[in-house]
Amino acid sequence: MHKVHEHGRTKLFQAWLDFFKGYVDFKGNTTRSGYWWGFLLQTILLLLAKLIATKAHMMSYSAGNDAPSVKILSFVGTLIVILLILPMLTLSIRRYRDIGLKNISIIIFILMPLVLQGIALSLQSFITINNYSTFLTIFNVLAFIKQLFTIIDVIFLLLPSNAMTLEKQNRWVRSK
Predict the structure, then answer these.
(1) 118-153: burial string, b at 16+ Cβ within 10 Å, e else
(2) Does the keyword Transmembrane helix feature in the UniProt annotation (predicted)?
């Protein structure tokens, strides 16, 4: 397992190497530039997966869903997406650590949007004509809170290294 400890400005090629070599490195740190270069790589690979899935979808109309080429393309597109989940998660965790967050803050910050999404999806099973407006209100509040987390996430990811470290010991962020 490769340990990722970036400092200063990370060049494109080094950031992409760290993206793949640090596939399961949850303990290192990633600089701002290293994160955004990795994010660019992930975006390019996800677009490639989307193009493959679109090609498979178009081929399913002409060749049928059971054609081997459709199944292979669908499998490859899905595999790319699945293989990108863990390195993007580790990249984000290393970035949060680089700005000064402790593990408990990182866990809460990553899990909260997922929990909110789970609550919103589970509420859909309770929709009836009578309580539809109540459901929409709750759903909109959850969506708003999730969007706040997204905005805070982007702000955090734009911060320089050690931007959130404090002079005193704290449960949520590292001390200097």
Answers:
(1) eebeeeeeeeeeeeeeeeeeebeebeeebeeeeeee
(2) yes
The pair of structure tokens assigned to 47 is: 């677009």
- Say what the pLDDT of residue 39 is: 92
Instruction: Say if residue 112 is exposed, middle or buried (CB neighbours under 10 Å; 0-12, 13-18, 19+).
Output: middle
Cα–Cα distance measured from residue 76 to residue 163, given in angstroms and rounded to the nearest whole number: 40
The residue among 91, 98, 81 whose CA lies nearest residue 161 is 98
Please check whether residue 31 is in contact with residue 7, taking contact to mean a CB–CB distance below 8 angstroms: yes
Q: Mean pLDDT, 10 residues at a time, over the chain (176 residues)? A: 70 82 82 90 91 81 70 84 89 90 89 86 71 77 88 91 84 81
Q: What single-letter amino acid sits at 11?
A: K
Nearest residue to 172 via CA among 93, 101, 99: 101
Query: pTM of the full predicted structure?
Result: 0.78
- For residue 99, the model assigns a pLDDT of 92
By C-alpha distance, which of 103, 86, 94 is closest to 4?
94
* CA dihedral (49, 107, 147, 121) positive or negative: positive
Structural contact between residues 91 and 35, judged by C-beta atoms closer than 8 angstroms: yes
